[in-house]
Amino acid sequence: MNTITNRFVAAERALRTAAPHQLLDAVRRVLTDQYAADSVELFLADYGLTVLQPVSVLPHTLRPVSVHNSPAGRAFGAQEPYVEDPSGDLVRVHLPVTVRGDRLGVLTVTLPGGEHAEGCLDELAEIAEVLGHEVVVAERDTDLYLQARRRDRLTLAAEMQWQLLPGRSCARPEYELGAQLEPAYAIFGDNFDWSASADRLSLYVTNGMDEGMEASLLTNLAINALRNARRAGLSIEDQAALADQAVYAHYRGRCYLSVLMLDFDLATGRVRAVDAGSPQMLRLRGGGVERVPFDAQLPLGMFEETDYVVQEFDVEPGDRLVFVSDGVYDVASPGGEAYGDAALARAIQSTRLLPAAEVPRAVLRELRGHRGRSTPDDDALVVCLDWRGR
Hints:
With about 400 residues, this protein is an alpha+beta fold. The protein is about 35% helix and about 25% strand.
């Protein structure tokens, strides 16, 4: 093997054999030894997607950097390596740390400039990707990376909700997905879930009921009931029926849950949907935005033994689907005007050039402007799906 291959293999081996809490130490050592790095830092996106938090042991830590207007934030948003001052003797390279489309953070490396930096940029980008995979695996065995993501303390309800989520974005050749929740550090019951196989994508958008722990417990019960039914190979209408029974058996109709369930055929773009409540879906197609109506059916757990009926529609390559909870759709301005279809359509149009992973954050930012205050009264959930098809 040549020198380039040898040093990349050394970096990959160092990461794969490191203890879960020592991934940063491992990548630091190997980048210093093999790539003449002067410094190496790992930043992870916080729950609110506003800053990149340094991974380090308190109190010896760096300051967070902005997602919106920093060099590291530029690499995070564009999902491309960004080199500061490429003509300097020392350059800082910011590399996105991403796993199958899920944007975790940024690896920042300072190293000699000129041809040295240019010659190893592709390898460093691959090392950042390997690091991302190892962080995801390591989170099973250490709290270090989950703690690093916290700008503030999470409420217990929010802790339960974030642990329930699949990620905040993902990508495959057929589609890209992005989602975000507010208030990130104090969410109650809103939720999203997705799962893909070789031929299908399942997507659930949930509008929770109640507040605090009660809302989180209800959502946890419903989502795990849906997953249990899905993993048993049942159709989405049967998944809804079984989750409905599970929620009703526990709450006897006192609490219930609204959910929009969609099952995409990746080969054809045919979608089977069950609308059990209030989440809304809007579609951007050919420059125009329209709300896609469904026949409203009963929320999960409202009554005993509800039967659910599937509706079908098609998505076309180039379609963008945006899903929102009532904490977006119904939120009022200081003058009492609901956000509604018109404002949502404007927000979707104004963000049409952004990738799917960036859209939820941008829409929620516009929603804060409409609301006129930073803290919402209700959970606000936005999910964006860009459909490419096969």
